[in-house]
User: Which sequence fits this backbone?
């Protein structure tokens, strides 16, 4: 069995209630989870102290704590991990903005691991808000942006995770980028071109 097949088999066992599969799963996906975390953290300011490991562990805890998920395969797991990492970073940015605006300080598990500037926090929150609006219009396009930009997936991997053709994934990517560019006043094109 290949590693991809091993991951898929373990996820199916986990969905079936065999909790011991978690112990076997982590070593197989850890390197990929670190790659995702690094990609999520790559836009932070120079000279900061970031902890990729903390983001991986926080996301993993969120993923394995989810009840009633019917894991499909490795791509599905990595897509969900990417979404969890995005949520963690957005929650941190929102907490930072609350504190900046005089709100009560909120303890965030990654508060010492992630340091972002006020402008980056504002941009991340604006992008998250725009993705929320896009999700109402097209959940698939929203997921495609999340998987490709935040998760670093190729168009082929996005197509596989979403269960669509490569051409559909490519069209969704172009349409979603254009929509986000309009929503964010032109700021999204440069950022999303890196994805």
Assistant:
């Amino acid at each position: 069995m290949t590693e991809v097949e091993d991951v898929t088999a373990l996820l199916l066992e986990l969905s079936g209630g065999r909790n011991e599969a978690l112990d076997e799963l982590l070593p197989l996906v850890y390197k990929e989870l670190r790659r995702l975390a690094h990609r999520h953290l790559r836009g932070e300011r120079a000279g900061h102290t970031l902890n990729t490991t903390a983001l991986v562990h926080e996301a993993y805890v969120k993923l394995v704590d989810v009840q009633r998920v019917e894991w499909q395969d490795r791509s599905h797991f990595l897509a969900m991990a990417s979404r969890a990492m995005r949520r963690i970073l957005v929650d941190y940015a929102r907490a930072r903005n609350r504190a900046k605006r005089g709100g009560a300080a909120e303890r965030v598990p990654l508060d010492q691991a992630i340091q972002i500037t006020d402008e980056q926090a504002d941009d991340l929150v604006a992008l998250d808000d725009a993705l929320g609006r896009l999700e109402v219009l097209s959940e698939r396009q929203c997921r495609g942006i999340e998987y490709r930009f935040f998760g670093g997936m190729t168009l082929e991997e996005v197509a596989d995770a979403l269960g669509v053709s490569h051409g559909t994934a490519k069209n969704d990517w172009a349409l979603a980028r254009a929509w986000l560019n309009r929503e964010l006043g032109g700021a999204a094109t440069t950022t999303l071109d890196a994805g």
User: Anything to note?
Assistant: Residues 45-50, 104-115 have pLDDT under 50 and may be disordered. DSSP finds nine helices and no strands in the chain. The chain has two domains: 1-116, 117-195.
